[in-house]
Amino acid sequence: MQTVRITKMFRNQKRVFIRWTKKRLAIALELVNNPPVIFLDEPTTGLDNYAIKQCMDLLYDISKEGRTVVCTIHQPPTSLFQKFDQVFILAKGLCVYSGSPSELVPFLSNAQMFCPKSHTPVDYLIDIVQQNPETINIFASNTENGKANSKRKAITPNRTRESKNIYEIYQETTQMGLSDMSVEFPVSFWKQFVILLSRIFLQMRRNKSMLYIQFFHHLISALLVGGIFFGVGNNATQIPAIFKFCICATVFFIYTYLMTPVLLFPLEIKLLRREYFNRWYSLKAYYMAITVSGLPLLILFGAMFLVIIYFFTDQPMEMERFVLFVAMGIAVALCSQGLGYIIGTLCSILKGSIVGPSAIAFLLALAVYGMGYNDGIEPYMKFIMKFSYVRYGLVGFCSSIFNERAPLECTDEIYCHYNNPSDLMKEMGMNGSQYQNQIIGVVIFIFIFRVGAYAALKYRMSSEFSTRIAYYATKIINPKEC
C-alpha cells in the first residue's frame, strides 16, 4: 500500500509539472512578439499552490516590465489577490467592483458590509452578491459598470497607470496605435520571410510521407499516361490521340495542383490565425514564404512528369518544342495552385472538396467548347472562353507540338486525314493560335489568382473587415434591422 501511494503521489506531481510546463510555454508563446497587452484565461487552473505562486510571480515580473497582463481567475487566495494592481469582480455580466485590492475592504465597509477576518474579501463579496442579487445593480452603478474605480473619494484626473481601469488603458493603447493591424514588427520583412521559409522547409523535410506520396503520384501518373499514348507522337494516323494526350496532361496539372491546397491549406489557416493574431509576423511575409516554398517541388515533380510523358509518347525531338511544352505545364500548375489557395482559404475541407471539382468542371467545359466546329464558335462564347485559363493551357500544349510542323507520313495507311497537324488545329477551333499569346494568358491568370489568394487570406485574418462586410450585406437585405 505504501508503494502504491508513493507511485500515485509521483504521478500527481508529474502531472502538475507537465501542466506548469505547458502554462509557461503558453505564456512564452504570447511573449514572442513583445505584445503590450497579454490576456490569460485561468492561468492557474490545474496547478498546486507552489506552481500557482511561481506562475503569478512570473506574470508579476512581466507586468513590471511595461506590459499589461489581464487574467481571469476564480476565487483567488489572499496572497495571490494582493499581487494585482487592478481588480474587476463580475457578477451576472456586471462589474461590482473596480479598483485596487487594498481598497476592497474599505469599499465594503463604506457599504455597511464588514468583511469577517475569517473570510477573504473576494469570497465575502461573492457571497454577498449571490445571497442578495439586488446588490449587484447597486455595486455596478457605484463603479459605473467598471468605468470608474470603486474608491471612497472622487477620482482625480491625474492618476497613475496602476490606478486606471482596463477601459482607459485600452483607449490609450488604441490612441497609440498598438491595437491597429498595422503594428510594427520587431524584425524586418525579409527576416520574417527567411524564418518562415526555413520553418516551412523544415516541416516539409520532416513530413517525408507527403514527399513520397507526391513523388509516386507524379511518377505513376506519368508512366500511366505515357503508356496509354506510347509512341503516337510521330504517327500521322494518331493525330487525334496526340490531342487527347494534351488534354490528359492539362487535366493532370489542374487536378493535382488545385486539389492539394484545397485539402491541406484549411489546416494551416487554424495555426495562422493564432500566430498572426499574436503578431508574430506579417501576412505578406507568410504568403510570400508559402508561395516560394511550393516552387521547388512543383517545378521538380512537374518537370519529371512532363519529361516522362514527352519521351514515352515520342513527341518531336526538338529542344524548342520540348522547352515550350514543359514551360506550359509548369505555368498551368502554378495557375491551378493559386486558384486552389483561394478555395482553400475561403472554404473548409468539406466545402472545398465540392467547390474545387465544380470549378474545374466549369473551366474544362469552357476549354473544350467548340472543338470540332472549325471556326463556327459564336463570338460571345469566344469572349467567355477567355476567362478559362484551362483553355489557354490546352491550346498552349497543342501549339507547342503542332504549330509550324511539317506534314507527317502515313506509314500504315494510304490516306491520313490529319497528316498535316494544321488541319487538326483548324478543326478544333485553334487555327492561328500563337503559343506566346497562350503563355501570356496563363501568366495573367497566375497573377490574378495569387493576388486573389492574398486578398482572401487577408479577409480571413481580418475579423473587422468580415464584420463590416456582414453588416453591409445585412443592411442591403433588411435595412430595418440596421
From TrEMBL:
- CC annotations in GO: membrane
Give every ABC-2 type transporter transmembrane domain span: 192-402
Report domain ABC transporter family G positions: 74-130
Q: Where in the cell is it found?
A: Membrane
Q: Which controlled-vocabulary keywords does the entry list?
A: Membrane, Transmembrane, Transmembrane helix, Transport
Kindly list the residue ranges recorded as spanning the membrane. Answer: 209-230, 242-265, 286-310, 322-342, 354-373, 438-457
Provide the topology term for how it sits in the membrane. Answer: Multi-pass membrane protein
Q: What is this protein called?
A: Uncharacterized protein
